Amino acid sequence: MITKNIVKQPKSIVEVTVTVPWTDLQATWDQTLQKLAADVEVAGFRKGAAPLPMVEQQLGSKLQDEALKTAMPNFLIEALKGTDIVPIDYPKYDLISFTKGQQVQFKATITNRPAVTVGNYKTIKVAKPALKPVTDEEIQKVIDDLYKRWSSRNPVAQPQAGNAPVSGQAGSISFQGGQAPAVNNQPAGPNDEFARAMGALSMTDLKGKVKKDLEANVSYNNELDYEEAILQEVEKITTVELPEILIQDELNRMLVSLQRRVADMGLLLEDYLKSQGKTLEQIKNEWRAQAEKNVRMELGLAEVARQENVTISDQELQAEVDKIQDAKIKAQFEAQEPRLHLRHALRQTRTLDLLKKMVATS
């Protein structure tokens, strides 16, 4: 029977010292020996046919390492049964002592799921920002940009809307199309011919389509701002001792986002940092306060989900996976870990929707 000693440290760090008698380890030891023996060559014997005691002697510390690597996670799980400890990272194992035939003792250091307290989220009040009207200047700027890109393709032979959306239907602007006959006297600015190439009936129709796209974008960003304001209120009423690993994970996520933005500008991250006169560590230090807010916000929202019993069923999860069109991406969700991440994201989204309803009725 295993024994354990659990010591809780600051920032949700937990040290678990586990002592295991040889009788509990022997089965794993023997199975590991059998598995490794198949690939061991001992002088005078065919590969995999040498007596196990000789194989064990030849393997030396490798057998111990492999057996403990398999056994320690299982012993840790057993040690944590009946406790309130839920690891949120991979444990770090340190072997304290081992004597074959007697016992093994090791220490596992883990980060425990932190205790989260959220204030009265049902009384949150957030005013939804008013929608900004789309101006004629904004519409004209989009049209001018479209025209510049369109006309630069071929200053003489300009494209027609071969695959444009059906006339009269709403939708985004199209650049697809065939090649028009040569035009000797092109207009100096956007006209109905250009509008038809963009999938519209006329310049008036094109302006209407551009306006509709801009209004949809304004509405989308307005909703994002509203959600962000609600989440910020959740963060303010959330109390938690933040584990360092979660802060570092968030900093790494922010860094990946920066790398993508920099790549879109055609730059390498190293060149971007040089242009800013900063090192990667300086950037991460500047971001740390925001990363802590983001983690606190995420944990607070998860605690609201727990209190409100928000769940995502297996059927709902699978329905979301089935929406994925890319076969390679979809195949990734056959593994358990991506499914867990997706379930968590769906749960957080549903919880935010619930909060938006609470705010609207408060």
Fill in the keyword field for this structure.
8 strands; alpha+beta; Trigger factor, domain 2; Alpha-Beta Plaits; 4-stranded antiparallel β-sheet; 3 domains; 362 residues
List the helices and strands and how they pair.
Blueprint: E1 3-8, E2 13-21, H1 22-37, H2 52-59, H3 61-80, E3 92-99, E4 103-111, E5 116-118, H4 136-153, E6 159-160, E7 178-179, H5 192-197, H6 203-236, E8 238-240, H7 244-264, H8 269-276, H9 280-307, H10 314-322, H11 327-332, H12 336-361
Antiparallel strand pairs: 1-2, 2-4, 3-4, 5-8, 6-7
Helix pairs in contact: 1-2, 1-3, 4-6, 6-9, 7-9, 9-12
Quick summary of this structure?
Helices cover 55% and strands 12% of the residues. By secondary structure, the chain is of the alpha+beta class.
Can you describe this structure?
- The protein has 362 residues and is α+β, with helices and mostly antiparallel strands.
- It has 12 helices and 8 strands.
- Helix 1 crosses helix 2 and helix 9 packs across helix 12.
- The strands form 3 sheets. The protein has a 4-stranded antiparallel beta sheet with strand order 1-2-4-3. A two-stranded antiparallel ribbon has the order 5-8. A two-stranded antiparallel sheet has the order 6-7.
- It folds into 3 domains: 111 residues, Trigger factor ribosome-binding domain (Alpha-Beta Plaits); 76 residues, no CATH class; 143 residues, Trigger factor, domain 2, CATH 1.10.3120.10.
- Strand 3 and strand 4 form a beta hairpin.
- The protein starts with a strand and ends with a helix.
